[in-house]
Design a protein that fits this description.
Pfam families: SSF. It is a multi-pass membrane protein. InterPro entries: DUR, Na/Glc_symporter_sf, Na/solute_symporter. With 699 residues, this protein is an all-alpha fold. The chain has a domain of 468 residues: Sodium/glucose cotransporter (Up-down Bundle), CATH 1.20.1730. The protein is 73% helix and 0% strand. It has 28 helices and no strands. The longest helix is centred in the middle third of the chain and has 50 residues. The protein is globular and about 70 Å long.
Length: 699
């Protein structure tokens, strides 16, 4: 058996790929994707009437995205470079507990967001961002507080992605890390600038397909490699790795147990931090507003449960490969172990890929890192641009902003935030901050607004003062606890001490739960009772979009339809029956509770408490189930959107391009979409005859 040197050995590993490969993937492929999206956007405008120069289309895709594409977009929204790199990182550090807690820290809040999404659809269907909801209920002071909290969330989320992705690109290709940081957002900026949220949905689909295909390839390639051979032999390799290097804080020092003190602490802070990332990320609300009412709950539920397999299945396999083969001559760092810096920079996955697949594995890991980073970065960019256009420009600078004004401000927001996030990430890199540090401390700054925002949507009694004060006090409390415990346990406040698991856990818990106490106490002192119907008094969609199905309900002629129509397929949320929305709300609540209990309580905690150490048969079952789940996720993300309307729209586009569109079919489709075709005096009816191409349902 080969002997490994300690972590203090030489840390340089020669990049397996040339800089040219790095620039081709980051720049050339990014620009090609952007160019393709520009062409697709133009084709959709010509053939289906999806005009991205209209605000409703640019920001909310006319609120008609179906379940399949919604589920795929939800999976993509969490396919961060952090998820791919971080799950392998914690698996290498804590064993089988790491990837599981990473996955369990993501799926429950994705499913829970279905409840918030459908509640917003029911109470304020015309909203574009969550911040509009805050402003209408509490006024401008609360609005400004939450704008700041949401922007902090987006800034740190982007930094987290860029730091990890840039480190991997540099390690794999030798490309300068600052060049990678600034070039990664380039293609994203271009296609988001042109296509808006629909371009984000479509590129999400494309990126997710490539990432999941490569992830599934890695899980197959690992066991076709002679060094591994089978899941049973992988078990023996991981067991031997624990004998060489016992894990501090794990029961019996083994990697093969869920009884991991550091693992469960990571699970707590990761779960709470991700709740903050979801609730305080306006991109999630935008995607919920963009989905049709019938697609919100099934889309988020299916996407959330399917996503679980990605960090769990892929993270378990690749971290086990790295642990088991670290003492082999073809492992990149041999004859030493990976340094703490290499692990923290997210290099476990690419090094494992290089070990089982050589330069091809390096190129594949580089490609999925790029895809994951740009895919989620596009959602962050559109989120910030929506804040700057709707919540800043429209509210504080030009109340009468037109489509043209809002699109222009959105374009400015896209460019500004892409440049700012790259600059901010560069600053963090130069002060010694990496993926591991941001992964641990993220919850401290993202969590303070969680419960005040949830209460805004679900609790009538929360007062204006509570909404304004509680998140500010929560942020102050979290920062104080984080820095105080870092000083106590580390002896000083430094990058190293503030990046440890324990201070970050304490700080995240304080940031998350203290606002509950502050909000309840302040509300009891000065209670208020909000009437949900007040949300509907404010018209947020632009009146000018008379030819748009999603805004046709502004006209008096469609008021009756708003009250009586019940659409089974995608339709304007205002035309969707209130009782049906309530039913979806109950379904969302059930699945939120079930997912949390299943993924966080009933499955892992008994294993933690029993000090169970995996036997060979159990480990084989654990890995096989994870791989099957991962392959199922690939099918859901790739095939489901095509079955659920994708093929129909592709056919529609083909007919439009070849001039074969059947007028009768078109008219039938318009009628089915719920427009007011029977009232000649209705402005909506007039718009049907004037602009038939605008009357298409987005899939």
């Amino acid at each position: 058996m080969s002997i490994l040197h300690g972590r203090d050995g030489p840390a340089s590993v020669q990049p397996p790929l040339s800089q040219a490969v790095g620039y081709v993937i980051v720049v050339v492929i990014g620009l090609i994707i952007a160019l393709v999206m520009m062409v697709i956007t133009n084709i959709l405008k010509k053939t289906t009437g999806e005009d991205n120069k209209k605000t409703e289309m640019f920001m909310t895709a006319n609120r008609t995205v179906r379940t399949g594409l919604t589920a795929s977009a939800v999976i993509s929204s969490w396919l961060w470079s952090t998820a791919l790199l971080g799950s392998s990182y914690v698996g290498y550090s804590y064993g089988v507990a790491g990837p599981f807690w990473f996955a369990a820290g993501c799926s429950p809040m994705i499913v829970f967001f279905a409840l918030l999404g459908i509640s917003c659809k029911r109470k304020i269907p015309e909203a574009h961002t969550s911040l509009e909801v805050v402003r209408i209920r509490y006024g401008r002071t609360a609005h400004i507080v939450f704008i700041i909290l949401c922007l902090i969330n987006n800034i740190f989320a982007c930094a987290n992605m860029l730091l990890g992705a840039a480190a991997v690109i540099t390690a794999m290709s030798g490309m300068h890390i600052i060049a990678a940081t600034f070039l990664l957002p380039l293609g994203t900026t271009i296609y988001t600038f042109v296509g808006g949220i629909k371009a984000t949905f479509l590129t999400d689909y494309f990126h997710t397909a490539i990432i999941l295909i490569i992830a599934c390839y890695f899980t197959a390639k690992a066991f076709s490699d002679d060094q591994v051979g089978s899941v049973g032999h992988l078990y023996e390799l991981v067991k031997a790795a624990a004998e060489r290097n016992p894990v501090s804080g794990n029961y019996a020092g083994t990697y093969l147990t869920m009884t991991s003190k550091s693992g469960i602490l990571f699970g707590i802070l990761h779960t709470l931090g991700n709740f903050g990332l979801v609730i305080m990320d306006t991109s999630y609300f935008i995607k919920a507003f963009s989905a049709s009412p019938a697609a919100v709950v099934p889309g988020y539920t299916i996407g959330g449960i399917a996503y679980f397999a990605i960090p769990w299945g892929l993270g378990t396999v690749m971290s086990s490969v790295a642990l088991g083969l670290e003492n082999q001559p073809n492992f990149p760092t041999f004859p030493r172990r990976m340094t703490s810096s290499e692990v923290s920079n997210g290099l476990v996955l690419p090094y494992a890929a290089m070990t089982i697949a050589g330069k091809g594995g390096a190129a594949a890991s580089l490609l999925i890192t790029f895809m994951a980073c740009t895919s989620t970065l596009s959602a962050q960019v559109i989120a910030v641009s929506s804040i700057l256009s709707f919540d800043v420009y429209r509210e504080y600078f030009k109340k009468s902003a037109t489509d043209k004004d809002l699109i222009r401000s959105s374009h400015f927001g896209v460019i500004f935030f892409a440049a700012f996030s790259a600059g901010f990430s560069t600053m963090l890199h130069y002060v010694g901050i990496d993926l591991g540090w941001t992964l641990y401390m993220l919850g401290v700054v993202t969590c303070p607004g969680i419960f005040p925002m949830i209460f805004t949507i679900l609790w009538r009694q929360q007062s204006k003062a509570a909404a304004i004060i509680s998140p500010v006090l929560g942020l102050a409390t979290g920062l104080a606890v984080w820095l105080g415990t870092a000083s106590h346990f580390g002896g000083e406040v430094s990058v190293a001490s503030t990046g440890e698991v324990l201070p970050c856990t304490y700080g995240t818990v304080a940031s998350c739960f203290s606002p509950i106490i502050y909000s309840v106490v302040i509300t009891l002192i000065k209670p208020q009772h909000y009437d949900w119907n007040d949300f509907k008094k404010e018209k947020l969609a632009l009146e000018k979009l008379e030819s748009d199905l999603t805004t046709a309900h502004h006209h008096e002629a469609s008021d009756a339809i708003r009250e009586n129509s019940l659409e089974d397929g995608p339709a304007s949320s205002s035309k969707f029956d209130a009782q049906e929305l309530k039913r979806w709300g109950r379904i969302a609540a059930f699945w939120s509770i079930a997912t949390f209990l299943g993924h966080w309580v009933l499955w892992p905690l008994p294993m933690y408490g029993s000090h169970y150490v995996f036997g060979k048969k159990f480990f084989i079952a654990w890995v096989v189930v994870g791989i099957i789940w991962l392959w199922g996720t690939m099918l859901i993300a790739i095939v489901y959107p095509l079955v659920d309307g994708g093929i129909q729209q592709i056919t529609e586009i083909y007919r439009g391009l070849t001039g074969q569109k059947d007028l009768a079919v078109h008219d039938s489709h318009v009628k089915d979409s719920g427009d007011v075709t029977t009232s000649p005096s209705s402005p909506s009816a007039a718009s049907v005859s004037d602009e038939p191409k605008d009357k298409k349902e987005s899939n």
